Amino acid sequence: MAWNEPGGNNNDPWKNRGGRDQGPPDLDEVFKNILNKFGKFGGGKGGSSDGKGFGLGISLVVGLLVIVWFISGFYTIREAERGVVLRFGEFSHFVEPGLRWKPTFIDSVLPVDVQTVRSLPSSGSMLTEDENVVRVEMEVQYRILEPYKYSFSVTSPETSLSQAFDSAIRYVVGHSKMDDVLTSGREVARQNVREELQAILEPYDMGISIVDMNFKDARPPEEVKAAFDDAIAAQEDEQRFINEAEAYSREIEPRARGQVNRMAEEAQAYKEQSILKAQGEIARFEELLPQYQAAPKVTRSRIYLETLESVYANTSKILVDTKGSGNMLYLPLDKILERQNTSNAPSTNRRTLEGLRNQDPAAENGPQDTGIRSDRLRSGRN
Q1: Which residue ranges form the domains of the chain, and what is each CATH number?
Q2: Is the pTM value of this prediction over 0.85?
Q3: Is 349 helix (H, G, I), strand (E, B) or coil?
Q4: What is the distance between the alpha carbons of residues 318 and 177, in angstroms, rounded to a whole number?
Q5: Which stretches does the entry tag as region Disordered (predicted)?
């Protein structure tokens, strides 16, 4: 028989527990007790819930809620961040760094870091244009320029950037040869990946700027890695030899040019010296011509003496006396001249020539007398 069937059977499971008549809690009684407590707090007597006490309790609760709501509206935007304010889910404005306040449940703020340079790596095995497999590792560095576009242009900005980055790398590697990616073409590949990534991101308008692109590593499969290492070493040796040859060329070429310029300047100086010397000889003979025409004998004797002076100034002199006792007298004038000052050499030679002329008056007759004096010198030596 059911506990609630007619017949006076009182088997209510909510009553008569523990020997007492108990049942489920009455919600009306619960609310009434709460209101009675607020009524007492507000000045009611004996737990009575009159209208005045109820109003004071409600006012107190509302005041506390307002205070909590106001305090919960304070927030801080850091120096490197910009705040995107949404009012009822729609973009309202930006806020600058500092202590700010917003109406809770009305505005929501999304802080976005716009100064930190972020990095996103990417790697994978890719097929090159010449149908070889290489593993490439690159890293892109970017910075947020427009917080609103970064937050709402796409659903997940980092995921979209990662997929675009992978696509740009595979496109560039797929249009490059393996040797270029592994050796000398890395810089070109890096620049091409950056340009391709910017072209992919432009339609999305994500509000980010690509700061730099790093080509971290590119290596062939492990099975052929040793052969490629040898090829790379050979290319490095080739480049080193080229650099050494260029350095040697840069060292030798200026030296050769300097020698050429020096020889050209010396030749020009010799040319000018020869021209000036010839012109001087011409001028000297032109000056001597009137003198010779006026006094041929005197002029001829003077030229003869000047010639002897210039000859004897550059040769060793030996004087032999054949007169008197007949003994040979040796006078080493060259040793004497070495002890004298070079400035006195012309005067000494001139005095020697004058002494010879005084001893041999025939010297005044000109150059033809030299044969007679030579015969005398030879006879003296004999």
Answers
A1: 27-71 (no CATH), 74-113 (no CATH), 118-220 (3.30.479.30), 297-381 (no CATH)
A2: no
A3: helix
A4: 92
A5: 1-23, 340-382
